[in-house]
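Q: Predict the bound structure with flavin-adenine dinucleotide.
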Amino acid sequence: MITLALMEDSAPSAPAPEPVAITAANPADRPVYVIGGGPGGLATAHALRARGIRAVVVEKADRVGASWSRHYDRLHLHTTRRLSALPGLKMPRRFGRWVTRDDMVRYLEKYAEAQELEIVTGVEVSRIERTEDGTGWLLHASGGRELTGSAVVVATGYNHTPYLPGWPGRETFAGDLTHAAAYRNGKPYAGRDVLVVGLGNTGAEIAVDLVESGAERVRLAVRTVPHIVRRSTAGWPAQYSGILVRRLPVGLVDRICRVMALSLPDLSAHGLPRPDTGLYTRARQGAIPVQDVGLIDAVRKGRVEIVAAVEGFEDGGKVVLADGTRISPDAVVAATGYVRALETLVGHLDVLDERGLPLAHGPRAPRNAPGLYFTGFTTPISGTLRELVIDAGRIANAVRRQLP
Ligand SMILES: Cc1cc2nc3c(=O)[nH]c(=O)nc-3n(C[C@H](O)[C@H](O)[C@H](O)COP(=O)(O)OP(=O)(O)OC[C@H]3O[C@@H](n4cnc5c(N)ncnc54)[C@H](O)[C@@H]3O)c2cc1C
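A: Predicted complex:
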């Protein structure tokens, strides 16, 4: 049973699905299992239910939206409230345009309750196999559970397991070395010299947070200079542009973005030249642009110093940078991303590519694994939450077609 904080003024954007009879094709003892109770899993469970298909969400944490409750305190969505809501329940206007982390957590909890989703918390799925008769999927889960489903949707998250590079000498570093996943706020870093490693959205925001929290010195180690965009320009959110250009040719979008980027200050003198590769080309490779929430200003004022990438650590607390420089920060925050960690779950099914990403995504199940779906393993410039919602409906349609 999930405990919920009610949001009295939230209004459904679409009528909640009518309770429906479970069809013979999807009998009660063979539901569709949705692994993961994040936005992707919840939206897909809702879409399945709306089509009369019994869906059971299996979540390893003790609550839905667990990944959001772990994010750092100052986090706001960089996609708009309206385009970040899940199907069937609007986010209340009082959340503002850029929703806070806490409101997002409340919303997901409310969503699970309002949509009357069937959710099992505290159960981790460790392995998925085809049933012996080949008609369904067998899930091995914590506590020795074995669950048999007619189909499975894997929604375990793109940001599943924090990734910390195997820097040589890492263990010799006497200061604090923390992955961004464990960073909450800048308080413990006040008055200290901090190195943030990695300039993605998380690294950029943490660097600014550290400055505002009174860190004595903040450096940001950058290997590949990202594209930086304003979160909104004259009230027009960057996400809207991302949606509009999504289907245009990559080269054309790159050129449009190059022109738009000229409205941003040139930070070359501060160590952030404009990238050579186009924005959309990079986004298609998985490197989404960094939305400016104060970094540009902080870099221009010298409050965040850009330094070369980290190569390793040396005795005496030194960090070795790619240009040969040695620096001695008190603390390092590694905003170095996450891995999908799908190998143990489905690696044996031959459904992953060499980067560990699913070969088929959304409504397309891998040819050799009919009934096995993946959602949330892309990084679209139009906003992941928006795409998760679109994929939820498509996956539910595909499941409905698949069931006899
Ligand atoms: C810091 C940050 C900010 C972001 N901001 C935005 C934004 O502003 N707008 C936007 O559109 N996107 C944003 N994203 C990207 C994306 O929308 C979110 O990561 C979103 O939570 C993805 O939803 P998901 O359901 O795919 O994965 P998650 O939210 O990660 O949910 C996966 C769930 O699966 C559970 N789980 C994992 N493995 C198992 C298992 N084996 N068995 C059972 N349960 C399991 C986890 O506990 C988790 O609850 C952000 C991402 C991050 C990291």
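A: The pocket of flavin-adenine dinucleotide is lined by residues 35-41, 58-61, 66-67, 71, 75, 77-79, 84, 124-125, 155-157, 159-160, 202, 345, 376, 383-385, 388 (CB under 6 Å).
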